[in-house]
């Protein structure tokens, strides 16, 4: 039986909140258009018959409203938008109807809640995502430079984006002043974006070395392909690892195949790509490192092991051997490398989970 008397759905926007609530005991219904001020929202909820429980969809407004309501002693859940059941034949969508649908699902217990991060975790996540955005910016500005040169038939013969390559770029000259100006602007953008990335890398490394995530990151770094930046990114993006099991974390990150089965037929397709995109990309990139032969840990791995407890080292060594064997298995079956990388990433997520929940 429900222990709450009143259920409220909140459709939250940047400047307004639409509320819809019902008293389970009397059947009385309330509708209210509120401002986005959390104080006003909490006062309205407090005026309803108690105890009350509210919910709203996770979105760009963040978790500030939920944290404020919790501080006032009001039960509030943040719903996962992708898991909400929506009427198929309903072609009218308004804020009031969205709020009404939310309280109905809340009353039936059909809300799939997300796990809101605490303030420190959200700040660390903002830092990691800022670095991810800069990574994308750097890739785009580098493409601008190489494509501009390629249109003029100029191709660098060595490895790109090294110090030698940067010196070579400074020697390039064009007869047309407009083209020269465009080229210099693109090269300058590369240098500035690289400096932004390096600045964020230093900040992440400093936080990973002295924060609540330090021990977790050091354990994750026992696996090949997971450096400090990758381990810290996984730590802050996934948050509470104990919510999952070794088999369920792959589904949470969208690394399991889609399926369309009926009767005796079973058809599996590409991966679902659900959940956290950034964490999934980090795991897939780390999976490629396990393609190389693994007989003995490299010096880089041994240096990381020095910072981790002994059980984590043993577990990491076992995981490294197993994941390389999986690569060999897929190569023996003539699987595409991209498919093998995703499959290894799914298993890598399970090994990372086993290290994350390990006690220090």
Explain how this protein is built:
- The chain is an alpha/beta fold and 360 residues long.
- It has three domains: 6-98, Nucleotidyltransferase, domain 5; 119-209; 214-356, no CATH class.
- 53% of the residues lie in helices and 11% in strands.
- It has helices at residues 38-47, 64-71, 95-108, 119-151, 163-170, 177-209, 214-220, 228-238, 248-252, 277-288, 299-305, 310-332, 337-356; strands at residues 6-12, 16-23, 29-35, 52-57, 75-79, 257-259, 268-271.
- The strands form two sheets. Strands 3-2-1-4-5 form a five-stranded mixed sheet.
- The radius of gyration is 26 Å and the shape is globular.
- It starts with 5 loop residues before the first strand and ends with a helix.
- The model has no long low-confidence stretch (mean pLDDT 93).
User: What is the H/E order?
Assistant: EEEHEHEHHHHHHHEEHHHH
Count, helices: 13
Largest sheet, described in full? 5 strands, mixed
Helix content percent band: 40-55%
Mean pLDDT: 93
Name the structural class. Answer: alpha/beta
């Amino acid at each position: 039986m429900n222990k709450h008397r009143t259920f409220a759905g909140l459709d939250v926007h940047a400047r307004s909140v639409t509320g819809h609530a019902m008293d389970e005991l009397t059947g009385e219904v309330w509708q209210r258009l509120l401002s986005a001020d959390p104080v006003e929202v909490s006062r309205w909820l407090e005026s309803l018959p108690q105890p009350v429980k509210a919910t709203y969809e996770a979105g760009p407004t963040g978790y500030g409203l939920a944290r404020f309501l919790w501080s006032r002693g009001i039960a509030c859940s943040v719903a996962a938008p992708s898991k909400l059941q929506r009427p198929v034949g309903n072609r009218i969508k308004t804020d009031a109807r969205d709020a009404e649908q939310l309280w109905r699902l809340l009353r039936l217990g059909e809300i799939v809640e997300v796990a809101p991060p605490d303030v420190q975790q959200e700040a660390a996540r903002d830092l990691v995502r800022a670095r991810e955005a800069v990574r994308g910016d750097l890739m785009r500005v580098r493409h601008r430079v190489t494509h501009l040169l390629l249109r003029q038939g100029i191709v660098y013969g060595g490895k790109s984006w090294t110090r030698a390559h940067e010196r070579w770029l400074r020697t390039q000259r064009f007869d047309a002043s407009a083209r020269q100006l465009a080229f210099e602007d693109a090269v300058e953008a590369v240098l500035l974006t690289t400096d932004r990335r390096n600045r964020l890398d230093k900040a992440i490394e400093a936080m990973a070395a002295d924060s609540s995530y330090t021990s977790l990151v050091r354990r994750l770094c026992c696996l090949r392909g997971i450096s400090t930046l990758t381990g810290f990114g996984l730590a802050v993006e996934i948050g509470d690892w104990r919510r999952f099991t070794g088999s369920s974390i792959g589904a949470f990150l969208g690394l399991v195949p889609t399926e369309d089965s009926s009767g005796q037929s079973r058809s599996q397709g590409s991966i679902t790509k659900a959940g956290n995109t950034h964490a999934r990309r980090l795991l897939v990139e780390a999976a490629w490192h396990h393609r190389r032969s693994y007989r003995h840990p490299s010096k880089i791995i041994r240096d990381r092991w020095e910072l981790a407890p002994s059980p984590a080292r043993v577990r990491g060594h076992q995981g490294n051997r197993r994941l390389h064997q999986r690569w060999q298995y897929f190569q023996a079956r003539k699987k595409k490398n991209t498919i093998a990388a995703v499959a290894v990433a799914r298993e890598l997520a399970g090994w990372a989970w086993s290290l994350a929940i390990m006690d220090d």
